[in-house]
Amino acid sequence: MAGSPEGLAGAEVRTRFLFIVSALGIFAGLVSAMFFAFRPKPAPPAFNPAANPYDRGVYANGIIESDQESGENINVFPEVSGTVTEVAVHEGEEVGQGTILVRIEDSVQRAVAEQQEAQARAALAVLEELHAEPRPENLRISEAQVEAAQATLKTSTDQLAKQRESYAADPRSVSKATLDDATNAVQVARANLGVAQRQLELTRAGAWSYDVRNQEAQYAALTKAATSAQALLVKYTIRAPVDGRVLSIGAAVGSYVSSQGTLDTYSQGATPVVVMGRAQGSLAVRAFIDEILIAKLGPPDRLEATMYVRGTDVRVPLEFVRVQPYVSPKIELSNARTERVDLRVLPVVFRFQKPPAIDLYPGQLVDVYVKAQ
């Protein structure tokens, strides 16, 4: 029954249980609120951001490059297309001018060069033959033909003389037709002798000057063609244009290269086959000054600047080298021009000595502050 002692005891137990559960819920809510309201102390930065060392300083993004008299890094592109058969150097290697960097498959061009050279040699042989004329054997044949014509003429002349003597002694001994045939035979023999003598003169004169000049022109043309083919063959071997250091190799054995360079595996853009830099103890940094800050720069010969290496507290003083006097669009390192505003910058080149405590490489981005007026 509801009013029995057992029912009252059960209701009391349920009431206590609900009270305990409610208390635990309130306690859990308070603990959760305190836990989520607690904010841990922020971790210190990995490095201190670059601070402006000047009272008036102009900030610029900079990129490290090899120190050269003019231009940026040396980008080596092939002048011919083909498949790479050999990469003769490795990245970071110091090379001298003329050192073989990359070889391109050249079997077709090599065959063309050999063919052109063989044709030039053949033309030279014909020219030397013309200069060597008359050939002794041909000269002796012409002389023999003259002697034979002279003998024939003498025989015909003697025969005519005998016929005339017989006719003079007895006109009935020789017919008129026989006498005429002997006379004609002498004339034919005399004409043949003249032809043989003129042929001998032609043989002794040697090659005609026009033939010689024509062959000389052909030999010169074929020689230039062979030289051109050989010069093109040489371009299938890419050599170092200057003394320097190999910074990057964009081609591997088996890859295809052209005058546009080679396809970069990651960016899918055209890149140089080899990138070189000057082998020097000093490096350069190219700082890009925003066009709205150009007016704040001082005279170029008195520019003072400081470079900060990102990710470190290293601070490097810079020496002014030159200003590239052309304000150009801002560089898009991602190769994707998505900016809607035409931002332009002025490149200013500085030089610095490489700090001994840290490694720096061309292509590395740095922060640069230039002292303003």
How would you briefly describe this protein structure?
With 373 residues, the protein is α+β, with helices and mostly antiparallel strands. It has helices spanning 5-37, 107-132, 136-169, 176-205, 209-234; strands at residues 57-66, 74-76, 82-87, 94-95, 100-104, 237-239, 244-249, 256-257, 262-263, 270-271, 274-277, 282-290, 305-309, 315-323, 328-329, 344-353, 365-371. It folds into 5 domains: 1-39; 47-67 and 280-373, Elongation Factor Tu (Ef-tu), domain 3 (Beta Barrel); 74-105 and 236-279, RNA polymerase II/Efflux pump adaptor protein, barrel-sandwich hybrid domain (OB fold (Dihydrolipoamide Acetyltransferase, E2P), Beta Barrel); 107-128 and 216-234; 134-206, Helix Hairpins.
Give an overview of the whole structure.
The chain has a six-stranded antiparallel beta barrel. With 373 residues, the chain is an alpha+beta fold. α2 (107-132) runs antiparallel to α5 and α3 (136-169) packs antiparallel against α4. The longest helix has 34 residues, at 136-169. Helix content is 40%, strand content 23%. The model has no long low-confidence stretch (mean pLDDT 87). The chain has five domains: 1-39; 47-67 and 280-373, Elongation Factor Tu (Ef-tu), domain 3; 74-105 and 236-279, RNA polymerase II/Efflux pump adaptor protein, barrel-sandwich hybrid domain (OB fold (Dihydrolipoamide Acetyltransferase, E2P), Beta Barrel), CATH 2.40.50.100; 107-128 and 216-234; 134-206, Helix Hairpins, CATH 1.10.287. The protein is elongated. It has helices at 5-37, 107-132, 136-169, 176-205, 209-234; strands at residues 57-66, 74-76, 82-87, 94-95, 100-104, 237-239, 244-249, 256-257, 262-263, 270-271, 274-277, 282-290, 305-309, 315-323, 328-329, 344-353, 365-371.
